[in-house]
Amino acid sequence: MKNITRIRLFDTSIEKLPVSFQKLTGLLNLIIIGNGMLRLPSSIFRMPALSKINFEDCLLPKKNDKLSSMVFTSRAVDIEYIELIKCNLSDKFLPILVMWSANVKTLDLSGNNFTILPECMKDCRFLWFLKLDDCKCLREIRGIPPNVKHLSAIRCKSLTSSCKHMLLNQDMHEAGQTMFCLPGFARIPEWFEHQNMGHTISFWFRNKLPSTALFFSTKSVATSRTNNFDIDIPTLIINDNINGFPVLMIDFGLMSTHHIYLCDMKLGFTQIHSMEKIILENEWIHAEVTCEHPKVEPLTEIGIHFFKQKNNMDDIQFTNPYEKIKLNDNDDDGDDVFYEVDDVLDDDNDGVFYDVDDEDDHHSQ
Questions:
Q1: Is the bond preceding residue 18 a cis peptide, omega within 30 degrees?
Q2: Which pLDDT score is estimated for 252?
Q3: Is this prediction's pTM over 0.85?
């Protein structure tokens, strides 16, 4: 039995595991999809080699079980991946589980009944992926793992506005690499310096694609029978998709309506490296982010934030740089003067106007 490293039990009708199960000392990965009747023995959580557990629709050990208390109050184990989906995880049991699994990196607690994510979550310093989908009773998040990058709280309809505001704090996202999905509606945070009404937003850049955070919300689905839809939005269109520039799409997977999304745009792009190879030095490039899709009603707001420490802000503009012509001013201070292309020029104030294309001829006379 030492050679068995993986066990999968799907839709099992058994109500308990045999005592001999704990003899599987070489077990690395355990997957159990139950029927709501199987109560997991405490001995599972003491298996020495176990690094990944996937439990769904199972019952956790009773909190007043002496063996359970001994297991979960002992030192943290080295399990890196934990899924406890629809396992009736309560507010009383959750802090014990968190202390026991302090070394976890991926944690999925979807479909449980707890109302508070405890403050001790801050001790999970290795946790980067936290999934809380369908925890419909969840109201408060008192502790946020310091290194969490992906947080999903889809359909957590009881989550308070103050919690959502905390999760949208700039300090949590300024380092980049985050992707958060939260329920309901929230105004675009003020630290998103470029905001627009509607479903599109655009900017100009040169030399390299900027490191950017994107904020948008989904509304109701117009043509779908379900509240979830698997589509590629938002989409980044470069130079109107001409001259060989690719169209890049952020993959959020299964998206939900009436939710807000905040993400580092580069996380979802699969063609960034191929695009950067064809960007010419100092050439201004137009980028448009759009969240338009036949199944989604137009968004009301969309916002962009450029990470200051990762970008040269001189290489980013919100207006078309080619709509301006730079002429050398004759003033002693050497300042540059900008004229709009569509304007006509009267640089000597003599009442005679010249087209932009005729400017060189005018000065040569």
A1: no
A2: 61
A3: no
